[in-house]
Amino acid sequence: MKTIVFDTGETLVRDDRHWASWADWLGVPRHTVSALVGAAVAQGRDCTDALRVLRPGMDVGEAGHARAAAGRGEYLDETDLYPDVRPVLAELRTLGLRIVVAGDGTARAGELLRALDLPADLVVTSQEWGAAKPDWEFFARVLEVSGAEPEATLYVGDHPANDLFPAKSSGLRAAHIRRGPYGHWWADHPDVVEAADWRVGALTELPALLGGTGRRKALAAPSARPAPAVESTPPGEEPDRLPAETADLPEEAAGPPEEAAEEPAPPGPSRA
Ligand SMILES: [Mg+2]
Description:
By secondary structure, the chain is an alpha/beta fold. The chain has helices spanning 16-26, 30-42, 49-54, 60-69, 85-94, 107-115, 126-129, 136-146, 160-169, 180-186, 190-195, 206-211, 258-262, and strands at 3-6, 98-103, 122-125, 153-157, 173-177, 198-200. Strands 3-2-1-4-5-6 form a six-stranded parallel β-sheet, sandwiched between helices.
């Protein structure tokens, strides 16, 4: 491996502040927004659907502009980073790896991320590129800045449909991290197990995997957990197995998957 490219939200950056600020802006309890985000995650929907449940028809981009105009726009600082980010990125660099941070986000988010002065060679967001995940153009840009061939470029992310599957479809290697709601909920889904070159519970596992023997699927033990309800994919059909596109509001959505309700996501990366 020559280049490691990191997703941002819930891979490097905790989304607590992001969702809390939306809750405050909309005047609803923070837990309400978090719970609705969880519902969207479990249904394989875009998590901004949580906002549209509260404000039907809401244009999230426009609302973001209104927040910024009111002086309540996006913000993040060192306290929003997961604690392993800075040391692990630095350690990976000492292994001679090129480090890129490239995730979905606004240009403002890009400015805020670069202000953190992370140990990375490049920090960029989807709005700055004009291409967002899971579109192939985003991963084409990833490969442009990688400086390495696809099979020597690893994309690390928490979201199966936005990170893992499109990265693999673009020929990259991919690691899934069990972090944040998408990461925890979907970690043991058979499609994730099958697609991921590596599955990790923390960034701290990466240096040994990448600087060591390079063994594949080191943590990809078979899952004992039933797959969350997701539209079944005929054998042989490629990705978009987990619906990622913003969908209609959940009036007509199916209820929570029974099997998932019976056996909620395990609390951490360890498996029996
Ligand atoms: Mg993410």
